[in-house]
Each structure stands twice: as structure tokens, then as C-alpha cells.
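Recap slide: Transcriptional regulator, LysR family, sequence and predicted structure.
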Amino acid sequence: MDRLLWMHCYARAVETGSFSAVARELAIGQPNVSRHIAALESHLGTRLLHRSTRKLTPTPEGERYYVEVRRALDAIADAESNARGEDRPRGPLRVACPVALARFKLLPLVKPFLARYPDVELDLQISDRKVDLVQDGIDVAIRVGELRDSTLKARPLGTARRICVASPEYLAARGVPQSPQALPMHNCIQYTLLATGNVWPFVQAPVEVRGNFKVDSPEGVRSAVIDGIGIGLMPDWLFADALASGQVQRILADWAIPPLPISALYPAKRLLPRRAVVFMDHLAAAFAADTAVGESGTDR
């Protein structure tokens, strides 16, 4: 009776949502994965998973058990590493990051991280969709914005300072707004994933904007602004090169906009493997040295 194998199969089934994915990962065949998890349920005397043709969903008992199993498996992995006298972190590390932040800030940090920790197998998931860390098997998710999920912990990495920008061509044709109150008379590019919707949150007076173009990607906003479609509100680092080259101009610089935190998120009840800790350390140090995002911190 290999209870540890059963537990590993169960944890990965929860994280991947698929017996087939676990079978491919462990090279043991899907029927074996199913049998191992059934044996674990029989041993515990409770159902851990709801099974359907489309997905696996943990039962309430299964969710509670998963938290403890993942903590135990991570502790065993760390103990084995310490017993071997291994100073360097090793093993798979799955990280999720939004597209624009990955392109402009995170991807340049991958090479030095892997050079320092060559035994870590980094799996970077680049997407603007909000991932479920448990269901998607994510160790660390990098996010821009306030944390609203109490099941997660956040390690602050930096700050996204937001600015309003437009192309010289747009401003020549439509004029330069002198205050946020003038924005409703302009074509404003709406980022549809903005937490405040079509309200741009100036400290002095939030303003509801409108325009004939909406997009769910920061890079889509960037392209539209450079092309002269309208005015955009985005982190300043997204437009650093375009500002330097004169492709866009900053406007409304005297009107403050609250910055957004950049954080590394991880499940609050999971014991973090050392490879995840050193990855967050690496990002925090690099972001602290980067004047565009530079504000590091500790867990909160």
C-alpha cells in the first residue's frame, strides 16, 4: 500500500483537473491514477472528488484534505532535499503572469534566475485571465492590482504607477485636455479588465469615460494609443519607450491616479517550496532596483 503515491496522485488531480494529465506526468497510465485515488477514498472512508466527463471537482472534504496533502508533500520534498545536502532549490515551478508585465518586466529576469538556479524547471504561464492557483496547479501568480481573495497571501514586489497618454496626432486633432473633467469629450480607450470599469480613478475626482474602442489587453491599449485612436490610462512602464521616442505624450500629469500594487500570490495554507521562495526573492530584488516599478516589501 503506497499511500504516498495515492496522495501525490490526488494532489495533482486536484491541481490539473484531469486524471489523464496526472497519468502523463507520472507515466503510470490513467486507469492506475483512478485506482490509486479510489483506494485513497476507500482508506479515508469519504469521497474526495466529484467526477464528470468534463472535469474533476473536489468535494468539501476533498478541498480540506488537499490543503493538508499539499503541505505534507512539499514538506517531504524539502526534507529529502535537505537530507541529500542539496543547497540549491530544484524541481518544477509553475508561475502565472499577465502578458504585458511578462513581456516588459518578467521575461528579462528569467535567464539570470535560471543561471543562478539551474535545477529549477520554470513553467511560465503567460495570460491575462485570472487563474485559479489550486485548480491550475500554479505555485506563484504575479498580479497587478489589489488582492481580494482571502485564501491567498501576497508578497508585494513593486508598484505600477499609472499615467494618461495620447499620440501627438490625436492631441493635434482633438486638443489637449486640461483636466479630467474634459475626458468625457474625448475618445478614451477602455481597458475592459480595469477594476473600476469605465471610471478612471483620479484622486481628486474620478471620471466616467467613453470611447469607440474597448480591449481586454494592456498591449491592445498601448497599440491603440500609439496609432492615435484615443487617450489611454496605463502603467507608465508600458509606454516608457514610446514616451522616450515621442510616439506618445503624457497628459494630465498634475492629476494624481492611485498606483496599483504588483504582488506575488500563493495559497495561504500551502507550505511554499524553497524554489518558489527564491523566485519571489529574485523578482523582489530586481523590481526594487527598477525605478519604473521599484517598491518591494514583505508578506501581508
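Residues 60-83 form the longest helix (24 residues).
The radius of gyration is 23 Å.
(End of recap.)
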